[in-house]
Design goal:
The complex is a heterodimer of chains A (65) and B (257). Chain A is built from 1 helix and 5 strands; from the N terminus they run E-E-H-E-E-E. With 65 residues, chain A is mainly beta. Chain A has a 5-stranded mixed sheet with strand order 2-1-5-3-4, with no helix packed on it. Helix content of chain B is 40%, strand content 15%. Chain B has 9 helices and 10 strands. In chain B, the strands form 3 sheets. Chain B has a 5-stranded parallel sheet with strand order 5-4-3-10-9. In chain B, helix 1 packs parallel to helix 9, helix 3 packs across helix 4 and helix 7 packs parallel to helix 9. Classes of the chains: A mainly beta (65), B alpha/beta (257).
């Protein structure tokens, strides 16, 4: 299925957010996630099923003022 | 000085953006003596995963982080970003920015108050980036903010304290609330001036990061902040319109015609 990760299209197998993060190379990384504009806490990722067209945001600590 | 019950010795809070290199960022933080640095959350992109290495630098310095909601233009965006930041950095602190105008980065003070209310009810300890508007500050305190961070001037503008009268009024109105001048400072004398007004601390970023020598500038700001605070505690003179001779007039020799 096709999802959007940080604005870019990605083709992944249907499954959970946790699975998608591993597939996309974010496994074990310090990131926070949102799906369709809603925050998904880390413990909820394995139970969050993704749907075709979902927009996923994966953010990390960055420089800021 | 304490923010939400956390005692801090340094009155300088430092931003982590726009440094020429990670090495200079780390050295500038050390030179500044800052115990709190601001950080953000951004999309983790590219194979290098830059956020992970940035985070390891910050962690190695042993400083407390104050995550921001920079770039958020709506209450929803700011609140969601705060949720992500709380999980990421394991802190209830949030530097709350809700921006209205892209040219001046002027806060949307209506959205700011609403977001502060929502986050306060959820247990966040909010550091609102606001203007020097007294009525807005009052609303922020009303919804639970125990720190206020009015701008000196627009972010990154290096203009200093645009409205000294407004900042003084805020200080007078909120004698017990920690007040931090956040944004717009360019040189250490601006920071000293803020401290001389009785402000509790200063939050800086661009003035240090984009200086020719960020490490030396970080130290210069730290010294100015200490000097300004010491001057405030020493009760400075109020400006007067007329001259007042410093040398005693009494006892002057009569030498005229």
């Amino acid at each position: 299925m096709r999802i959007f990760v940080n604005g870019d299209q990605a083709e992944i197998e249907p499954g959970t957010l946790a699975l998608a993060l591993t597939t996309l190379g974010y496994g074990g990384k310090k990131v926070a996630t949102a799906v369709n504009g809603r925050f998904v806490p880390a413990p909820a990722r394995p139970a969050t099923e993704l749907s075709d067209g979902d927009k996923i945001e994966v953010v990390a600590p960055m420089q800021g003022g | 000085m304490s923010f939400y019950g956390v005692d801090l010795a340094s009155r300088l809070l430092l931003g982590t953006a726009r440094y020429p290199s990670p090495k200079l960022l780390a050295e500038a933080i050390k030179a500044s003596g800052a115990e709190v640095v601001t950080v953000s959350l951004r999309r983790e992109a590219g194979p290098e995963r830059g956020g992970q290495s940035f985070w390891s630098i910050i962690r190695s310095l042993g400083v407390r982080v104050l995550p921001n909601t920079a770039g958020c233009h709506s209450v929803k965006e700011a609140v969601t970003t705060a949720h992500m930041a709380r999980e990421m950095f394991d802190t209830r602190w949030i530097k709350l920015e809700v921006i209205r105008d892209d040219e001046t980065l002027q806060p949307d003070v209506f959205g700011l108050v609403e977001a502060a209310r929502v986050l306060g009810e959820e247990g966040f300890e909010v550091f609102p980036y606001t203007t020097e508007d007294l009525a807005v500050a009052d609303r922020l305190v009303e919804v639970g903010c125990k720190v206020l961070m009015p701008w000196g001037a627009p972010i990154g503008s290096a203009r200093g304290l645009n409205n000294v009268y407004g900042l003084k009024a805020l200080r007078a109105h909120f004698p017990e609330i920690p007040l931090v001048v956040d944004a717009g400072l360019g040189v250490p004398s601006h920071a000293a001036a803020a401290m001389e007004l009785g402000y509790d601390a200063v939050l800086l970023n661009t003035a240090v990061a984009e200086a020719g020598d960020p490490v030396a500038m970080a130290k210069a700001f730290a010294l100015a902040i200490d000097a300004g605070r010491m001057a405030f505690a020493a009760k400075p003179l109020e400006p007067r319109d007329m001259a007042v001779p410093s040398t005693p007039v009494l006892g002057k020799a009569s030498l005229g015609d």
